Queue: 4 jobs
Job 1
Amino acid sequence: MSYTLQNVSAPAITESNSLQISRIDKQGYQIFDALTPSELHLVQSIILSKINELGKSESINFSDWHSLLSSYTSNFSHLHSRLAPKPIRLFSGDDLDAVLKLSIFNRIRNDLGSFLISDEELYGFPEIYWRLVRPNTYSDVGPLHADGWFWDCNHWIMPHSTDKRVKIWVPIAAEPNLNGLLVVNESHNDSLMSYDVKVIDGKKKPVISSIIPDSLPVLLPLRPGQALAFNDSLLHGGAFNNAITPRISFEFTCCFNTKHA
Ligand SMILES: O=C(O)CCC(=O)C(=O)O
Ligand SMILES: [Fe+2]
């Protein structure tokens, strides 16, 4: 993907499920169809290879995606801790090139206009990274947060001439109603939410300090193939995984220029 702002393309004819910034900002989020079965398969094979590459030194090898899902539970804690650093989970090199060809990026561009994927931690390439949440493991999910808090407390800088962030979350292995992403409805309009900043593993992380207002977190029932676009101020977080298989997803931040003539 080119790393310069492209001309804003004409928005696609509005269909009932087309992505719209105004809807994302009104409701806080929008669910959309994002990956074809063969694209899902491609991302699964990239993640499987990465896990097997890391597993080599421990003689761990998963023969296929199904075997990864059925055997990677709350065991493999040593391998799992080696998956924790973000650089390990960033798509890079040929994998990144392949991921950037997924139709989800065209879908977003057609609906919302041209964008850049953020590189807030300055790796030198778009930050698209995956996560694996083991079944039944509290330590694999973090606190509720708004992604904008990370940007604010770290003073991250958006790509040149962009002014609007939309986060995209894409489940690759998920069981609707048993795992996935929690959101707090209307929280993106709540100006009273606050957080403390903690330094965890040398990185500044916001930790919610306000009482969760009015509504409780709800688990969005996304299935692999769908994705979520959400507002930067929406309170959300990974849900405890009640399924018997891991939940695997990837995410990235799209940065738009809303002032473009
Ligand atoms: O997948 C998760 O557990 C958390 C994802 C998240 O916070 C995000 O996509 O911004
Ligand atoms: Fe987040």
Note: The CA atoms of residues 60 and 147 lie 34 Å apart.
Job 2
Amino acid sequence: MQAALTPHAVSLAGMNRNVLRKMDQRGPRYTSYPTADRFSERFAVKDYLHAVSDRRGMGAWRALSLYLHIPFCDTICYYCACNKIVTKNRAKAALYLSYLKREIAMQAALFSGMNHVEQLHFGGGTPTYLSDSQMGDLMAHIRAHFTLAPDEAGEYSIEIDPRTVSVERVYSLRAQGFNRLSLGVQDFDEDVQRAVNRVQPEEQTLDIIAAGRTAGFRSISIDLIYGLPKQNVMSMARTLGKVIDAGPDRIAVYNYAHMPHLFKSQRQIKDEDLPGAEAKLDMLSLCIRQLTAAGYVYIGMDHFAKPTDDLAVAQRQGRLHRNFQGYSTHSETDLVACGVSAISAVGGSYSQNEKTLDEYYARLESATLPIARGIQLSMDDVLRRLIIQRLMCNFELSLTSLEIAYPIVFREYFADEMERLRLLEQDGLISIEDEWITVESKGRMLIRNICMVFDRYLNQDLTQARLAGMEATPQRYSQTV
Ligand code: SF4
């Protein structure tokens, strides 16, 4: 069980900057383990069918989590690293919907008799790129194929771009069954907005938040980013002040990952406009201080929530979970994801759909699920996934409970990892006792670095790279600080 952190407990001011610099490496965000870059094309539809039939064979009744990916956006935000398609041609969305509905029907047939849904999330792209009537049609299709838990028991969320919705649309989304809103804001500062090609007037965002409240949404969350061009500590403080005044239930503050070698639109961002590493640390420090001082609980990594929000309650009760949408309160669910590039997690498997529209459509035309790659987890993968989950969500690990659940002696099985953990202990990020590994308050921000110790694939890569005298840090990952 976790106690809420006080403002001072998570202040970066007390942290040795040398430690922070040492920890500022590239690394995964662990929305899954193994991470998606480890998926293989050897994993095929038949493997997914096995995972579903294992679930049926176990006779276990577990609720489902559904994810729907809507890849379209009106305009490009330069910082974006999402899988999206920027177009003003709305006919593309109509065609996409026809295929998405086919995939939903195929998945529903597979899960027939065990299709109870407790969590539904629309992500993108921009889900509100769909018109009101298209969204109503899609939700009716989902309800016709899956059994959705009643409003009070289910968590039905949608990411919205305040530039694409009106107050009336917010009411309509609530009537269509959504009860959680997630708003992309990033920064209220106009210079920053111009520099990233996302001009979003403050009043527009505040109006949508107010509409969300009066329409009866249970939870409203706001996404911010630190490390954007033209940002500095002063502008960040002003944005945070405005966000606190708006009072969302959850706030996510993401670290901008500048990787122009991977994401073309990021090449529009001028290097000289980007804040340096020290300024980014100051901004992160400020976010933690200002938000916790305003009463938000620091959940971990990049998430904050009001103490009364489900996320904070779930963390206090030790039942917080982490999946592709970030932190979640629904741990005992399999995730069925539909749409181009979407990733499902069923039983001990992950599977990802085709990444381009043409391939996605072609697979559905031939009446097969559009799965392109995936992975079947070994016992070692499942064990490490559990450890990473516990560390990211509970910030502590009971070695005894792992030894009871798995045929291992922890300190022998993870002998190499224990050596690396001792170094983190010397830096004050964790403490190691006979039966427990506990993440210290300073380590919470660097939880990715701590989890990286248990990533067998990453450590194999690093060892090979070092032996070959090459750059040791994989370029496809973002900086951890
Ligand atoms: S940040 Fe969101 S709205 Fe902007 S391009 Fe990316 S997916 Fe689209």
Note: The radius of gyration is 22 Å.
Job 3
Amino acid sequence: MPVLTVCNHKGGTGKTTSSIHLAAAFGHAGGRVLVIDFDPQGFLTRMLGASEPPPEHSALGLLDASADLASFPVQTVSGFDLIGSSMALTKALRRMTRPTDVLWLRETLQTAHDYDIVLIDTAAALSPFTMNALVASDLVVIPVTPEYQPVVGAEQTWQTCGLVQDKLNPRLSVPRFLLTQVDGRLNRHAKYAEYLRGKYGEAVLETPIRTSSSLAAASRDGRTVFDAGVTTRGAVDYRNAAKEIARHLYAAATAPPADSAAESAPAAPPEAQDVPAPPPPTAQAAPTAPASGSPAPPAERGGDGALNGHRVSGGLPAAPAAPDGGEAPRGGAERPGGVASGSDATP
Ligand SMILES: Nc1ncnc2c1ncn2[C@@H]1O[C@H](COP(=O)(O)OP(=O)(O)OP(=O)(O)O)[C@@H](O)[C@H]1O
Ligand SMILES: [Mg+2]
């Protein structure tokens, strides 16, 4: 069951719109899809017209030691299941100070269930919730509007993914940039898109999400564009992006172990696969450094050399110190969510 996180450290780049519409595209194609709103501001929950769940049934509850995905209460919206956000996430943040606090979501998502794919929407901030999502993921999609600040945020997110892959989650495959809110009339959009494609190559999805009045309206009226039909620009773009993502998930799931990857190519994906239902990825390639000699970012404040490296220099949680070098035992530590134990849920 692949886990896909939608993340960009810059705000307003289309993360929530992409989470909703990729989920709707997978659901429309017949997949069983779960969306988790891990943004404490809960815009995705509100955009879908869903009610705010009680803390223990919100995304925060997934961090509890006793959380079990198969029995976790969900709301059903627009063809997929939703675990919504709650104000309690913000309150819980100040308790999430230990390195192990980034591990709990992964544990819960590894409990038995029958979803074909899980999508996680994140806030622009690199919070412990976002880290939980990255640690639990097989793939990160980075929505990026081809403008200066979103591109900077996207490249920083790429670097974060490299660090997480190296230190915390070796399953994480190469992140994929998804161009969003693309206006074909704007030269600067073309310029930034060209910059990303030149530097990151195949890590940039071929399908751009164009500006679309129906996508903008969908965020206001609690519907997805798929509810109004599959032929609108927004529905066509997100369906094509979902197909590409499904192919990448399939390729990652069937990739040979890293040490033999150079000798045998992965099996070809099925033709025009709509629904991502690959087995969980086992061995995947790490995020790779951008191609050397690639062009500098189109300069608005000068080329930022710090963005050209793969690693971030610090400020992120260190690898957790578990006794056996693996994960901390499930339920063995007081959880930041703690909603089920009632220990300190609403300070
Ligand atoms: N392709 C599109 N065409 C038109 N409007 C869009 C498109 N994608 C997103 N928008 C609009 O842009 C705004 C920001 O989108 P969205 O909320 O998805 O971004 P976000 O990255 O989740 O923001 P935040 O960082 O605040 O969570 C919303 O009003 C949304 O309706
Ligand atoms: Mg959002």
Note: The two ends are 35 Å apart (CA to CA).
Job 4
Amino acid sequence: MSEVERLLVVDDEAPILHALQRTFEAAGYQVTACADPAEALDRLREKPYQVLSADYMMPGMTGAEFLAQAKALQPETIRILVTAAHDFSAAVDAINNGEIFRILAKPWNRVELLGTVRQAFDTYALREKNRQLTAIVQSQNAELAMLNKGLERLVEERTTNLLDGMVAVLDYRDTETQWHSRRVSRFTRRIAEQLGVKDPLELRTIEMGALLHDIGKIGVRDAVLLKPGPLDQDEWTEMREHPRLGWALLQRIEFLRDASVIVLQHQERYDGGGYPAGLKAEQIVLGARLFAVADTYDAITSDRPYRKAQSHDQAITEMQRVAGTQLDPRGVAAFCGLPEAEWQAIRRDVEKISLLEQEWGWTPPKRIFEQIREIASRQKQPISDPPPHVSGS
Ligand SMILES: [Fe+2]
């Protein structure tokens, strides 16, 4: 170690203290000598020492006390006891508490004394090096962890963007309702919030599950998905596979694994009459039950090829009619607990962002969801804006 090697010597007997000081100075150490243990503690408060050599029997405080305090002040300092042989048994406590590196008997053997002090400095240097390396490893680990987190975020963001694009394509393909999935995902999240769900991760899972609910329709042929008339038995079987297909697709994406359950269960009915498993009530995850409420509302209040959109009030009447059979009554109640303007505002946000997106040439520069929320938070007031063209017409 290139640093100065500082040694603090404590002994209440002046001749011994001086003898030790001379011996150590002659060996090249920078020595601070103290006759009083309290003063020695003051020195320790001033600057670091690599090695401390102390007597055991001193006035003012016991050797054990002194060593314990010295350890508290500078835990890294290597402590040596140079004391009368009859003090050895008294020093047992200090030894057992790990406060001492070595114990030497007075009168000392010069070679042994200097050898021990040398070892003490070397031990300090080794431990110091070890501390430095550990710190480096820790900071590199932290850096690596941060890098990993950044990568995970990037993968998540890109995957979400990709899926969001796929959902928009699906909505187009299905043609019945434009931006249906995005609207329903926002509606579902809002119902969950109204029901008291606060955990941001859970809300995100619910929102993503609702957004991706029909992703499995990728696996349904056009001839079935877009068939104008009623489906035959085989076609129904194919159609009814889409929740499972969607679920299987999302199984491969770790951060969407929870949302995949909502996808799997999104066609279940509260009374057990849905598919694929015929689950009932609480057997269906909350996100899927709330999705069904949002989906029903969106279906009624959106234009369909075979009928115009119905009003908010008509939708509420219908939803209350099927509460307890098709829909979770709690979800319906939560939905009805919010004013029409709230749902219209969400609808407008989604339409706005979707139109912006078309202007940008499809791929938005930022994540859609962030954009939607940004716009929503910037425009808290326009709830009283005129209602959108789709509702009540
Ligand atoms: Fe579906």
Note: The first strand starts at residue 6 and ends at 10.
